[in-house]
Amino acid sequence: MNKKVAVATVRGRAYFHIVNMLREHNISFTNLVPGMPIPPKVCLVITTPEERHLVDFERVLVFYCEEEMDSLINATKRLMLGKEAYGKIVIGIDPGEAMGLAVVADGKVIEQETCYSNQQLVLNIQRILKNINYALTSVTIKIGNGVPVYRDLLEELDYTLPAQVVLEVVGEAGTNRPLKEHRHSRKARHISSAIHIAGRLGNSVHRRPMIASNHTTQ
To answer: Which residues pair with 62 in a beta bridge?
Structure first.
């Protein structure tokens, strides 16, 4: 994909945070002075509230503060795919001492990482789903059943996540590729397994009734 994000700001602090975010997620970008013409390959412009009026473009995101960087990167990835909202998000989890996490949005992997505790994994999922509009986007979380600890994780997700999120348990047979296919690190193997789990059919888990009243929003 040759599409790029344009960073249109002359404000040093904002530029620093935006560019670091894009580099961390391997997103190509170009630099612009607000008010300059937008190059043809640019599909999205990121700017600041003070400079927004200088950017004449259809798709513009605004950097407000560091605390909203997660929302900004999620919106950047979505708009680069030409989507105002995802239709379906599937999160695959490979549980264990190190847990693979893969986020698949409308068939495309948009995020992947390794977590080392239930708390870290749950917080990451809450971050990913923070601004989801469940009227537009269906969300399913699929957990592999290869190790017994998946039950504890499933219970924690059931209690923590909004009632609209569907939980499924997936058989892990065949999802773990031999280590020689992932010589770079064990981390890659866990993420690969999470991606395979996300793509498999699972068995739905009945959600607790209390979730609907206590955790309808995140």
So the answer is: 47
The label of the residue with tokens 């699972």 reads: 202
CA 75 to mean position of chain CA atoms: 10
Give yes or no for a contact between 68 and 76, defined as CB atoms under 8 angstroms apart. no
Whole-Å CA distances, 127 to 29, 163, 191: 24, 16, 18
CA nearest 72: which of 35, 32, 22? 22
Percent of the chain with pLDDT over 70: 89
CB 15 within 8 A of CB 9: yes
What single letter denotes the amino acid at residue 83? Answer: K
d(CA 167, CA 133): 18
Sheet holding 60-62, edge to edge: 29-32, 4-8, 42-47, 60-62
What gap in Å lies between CA 166 and CA 201, rounded to an integer? 13
**Tell me: the pLDDT tens digits for 76-94?**
999 988 888 899 999 999 9
Where helices occur in 53-208 by DSSP H, the ranges are 69-80, 118-129, 150-160, 186-198
Q: Which alpha helices (H) appear in 81-208, and where do they start and end?
A: 118-129, 150-160, 186-198
Kindly give, in sequence order, each residue whose CB lies less than 8 Å from that of residue 164, ignoring residues fewer than 6 positions away: 134, 138, 139, 216
Are the beta carbons of 217 and 113 closer than 8 angstroms? Answer: no
pLDDT tens sequence across 179-189: 454 444 666 88
Question: Over the stretch 116-172, which tens digit does the pLDDT of each residue have?
Answer: 999 999 999 998 998 899 999 999 999 999 898 899 999 999 999 999 999 999 987
